[in-house]
Amino acid sequence: MSGVAIALNAIMFAVYLIFWGAVFVIFYHLTRFGVGTQPKRFAAVFFIGSVILFGASVILFANLDLASLISK
């Protein structure tokens, strides 16, 4: 694995950490400070959507050919 590929993987790992940090903050505030059941339902839909987006991005990044990006 080349140095550029390692750097791209490290950047994606950092992006994923930032993404889940933001998801946690939004999810926490919706469930903790929301009054009634509506914010909690919205939080559940938001969390499910976040998991789907995360799964799709992991699958797409896993299928990405880094060698073709680096060689250009």
Name the descriptors:
72 residues, mainly alpha, 88% helix, elongated, transmembrane helix, transmembrane
A few lines on this structure:
Keywords: Membrane, Transmembrane, Transmembrane helix. It is built from three helices and no strands.
Explain what you see.
By secondary structure, this protein is an all-alpha fold. The protein has one domain (3-71). It contains three helices and no strands. The chain has helices at residues 3-33, 38-63, 66-71. Helix 1 (3-33) packs antiparallel against helix 2 (38-63). The protein is elongated. The relative contact order is 0.13. The mean pLDDT is 89.
> What percentage of residues falls in helices of 4 or more residues?
over 70%
Count of extended strands: 0
Overall pLDDT confidence: 89
Distance from N terminus to C terminus (CA atoms, Å) equals: 16 Å
What's the layout of helices and strands?
Blueprint: H1 3-33, H2 38-63, H3 66-71
Helix pairs in contact: 1-2
